[in-house]
Amino acid sequence: MTKMKLGVNIDHVAVLREAREVNDPDILQALYVACEAGADQITIHLREDRRHIQDIDVQNIMMLSKVPINLECSINKDILAIVAQNKPHRATLVPEKRQEVTTEGGLDVVGLEDEVRYAIEYLHDAIIPVSLFVDPTIEAMEKSKELGAEMVELHTGHFANLFAMLNSSLPYSNHSIEELELPRYELASQLEKSLQELKIAAKHAKKLGLEVAAGHGLNYHNVHEMMKIEEIVELNIGQSIIARSVFTGLKEAVIEMKKLTTR
User: Fold this and answer.
1) Residue 98: pLDDT over 90
2) Is 197 a catalytic residue?
């Protein structure tokens, strides 16, 4: 069996810190606890609007982390320059819109081919491996390989939304997803289709020689479905771990997820 790596995304610790613009909770304490609990890597996203992770956070985390850093970023040239200067163990290129709450959808590697190619070459010149956060399609896998990425991270957001609408109280909350307010049999059918798309994309990516990760919306209730896809070697999970930590503490929350992602 291929080892499954767990990347713990600590962005939401910084979200809470920035809500009051004080250094509490301390992002570095989150780093230390996550590492102690068994995180295989730390994932952070330096957004253009700096809504959570700040430039100094990147510097400090890079200097002090005992595990590899996966730095998510847009293809904005100013951001790429910061990434190149900090030299994370990997950069993951993601789409970014100022108005979105969180990253929605994968990077358009076809429509933004020239910009993505430039970003990959720029980061490669700085000796930084690149992963592309993309939707699970054959076209995206092939274009990612063509552009020179070493890895793809499959966007699992649609799968996670379908799973939540079918298997949780989400439909009865203020956050119900209107376009997915469908009969249960239709949700079940779409969920199975989404899983098949992820499996096919992962298999095709591996065949092309790409490493395969997955992330977005994964949590303690749905992550078992990703464990069935043997081509996926890494999961990046953040919001659900930080949310669980409110009740259990961060160390226990990471340990619980590690147990669920151990093959």
Assistant:
1) no
2) no
